[in-house]
Amino acid sequence: MLTAAHCVDDAHSDYQILMGTNDLNPSEGQIIKVKRSFIHEQSNDTTFFNEIAVLELETPIDMLKCGKNCQIIEPISPTIETQNLRASTNLFAAGWGVIEDCANSDSPYCGTEEEMTAKEFLATHPYTLQYTTLNLAECISPSSNYHPAQIGRNMFCVESNATPKSDTCLGDNGSSLKLKDRTGKSYAVGITSTGRGCAQEGYPGVYTKISSYQRWIQNTTGIQLIEQTEKPVTETPETEHPTTTTSASKSSGGGSMGVFMLIGLIGISLLRHRNRTQQ
């Protein structure tokens, strides 16, 4: 399973994946232990370059038990991405991240977790899977406040065109961003990575570009992904190199990938505003 690199700690191996449910009720899904994790060798928790990791599960996912709640989502290839990804393309994010950007909100439900009542906690931490639709955005533009050095070539940005705006938020990092092609087939196009705040003007969400890491995923998992029609690449586009300017912020979350099939990135995931450190 795929996730963001900063969501995985080499020092810990007690991760578990909850699969096949739309709420955080373990009795309705499958809990599978992670056997081991593989973090991109050039990942950087400061710049958020090469924000990708693979989780190998101890046991296979029972797809029959999952039924309609489990969907196989392949990592998108460069060719399919070129054919389907446009500024107007709807991109879909889902998860259980917080639904209030408390660092930038006067909501009565915002406060430290120690101060929150059970009612207040549940008001900002959903137990039911949340969804939102996003669209491509320019990471570097007159309306963006990011510095060019913060955005690597293997990153891209998205934001909401709705009013009020929606976004991923605290707990969403590592979850997937997917698109559907003309036949309705879903592909994982991005991994929720970083940004500034949640749905803040001038700070679209920053995502890892999955198509840039096909060879890394294939070499790490042994799963054949590279299109047979692709010509060999002489450069190494899969590695971002850090600069002296750091990224805006970071968040935490979770994600995943199967041993023989790439299953859609499962993140502790999303809606309406995004978790990033505030400055």
How would you describe this structure to a colleague?
Helix content is 9%, strand content 22%. It contains four helices and eleven strands, in the order ββββαβαβαβββββα. A hairpin with a 5-residue loop joins β9 (176-180) and β10 (186-194). It has helices at 63-66, 78-84, 118-124, 214-221, and strands at residues 2-3, 16-19, 30-39, 53-57, 74-75, 91-95, 130-137, 155-159, 176-180, 186-194, 205-209. The longest helix is centred in the last third of the chain and has 8 residues, at 214-221. The protein is mainly β and 279 residues long. The protein is globular and about 50 Å long.
Note the main attributes of this structure:
279 residues, mainly beta, 6-stranded antiparallel barrel, 4-stranded antiparallel β-sheet, 9% helix
Topology, pairings included?
Blueprint lengths: L1 E2 L12 E4 L10 E10 L13 E5 L5 H4 L7 E2 L2 H7 L6 E5 L22 H7 L5 E8 L17 E5 L16 E5 L5 E9 L10 E5 L4 H8 L58
Parallel strand pairs: 5-10
Antiparallel strand pairs: 1-4, 2-3, 3-4, 6-7, 6-9, 7-8, 8-11, 9-10, 10-11
Radius of gyration using CA atoms only: 18 Å
Average pLDDT score: 78
Secondary-structure content class: mainly beta
Shape: globular
Strand content: 15-25%
**How many DSSP E strands?**
11
Helix % is under 10%
Give the count of helical stretches.
4
Following the backbone from N to C, one meets helices and strands in this order, namely EEEEHEHEHEEEEEH
Uncertain residue ranges: 228-237, 242-279
**Amino- and carboxy-terminal Cα gap:** 32 Å
Largest β sheet strand count, sense and barrel closure: 6 strands, antiparallel, barrel
Spatial order of the strands forming the largest sheet: 6-7-8-11-10-9
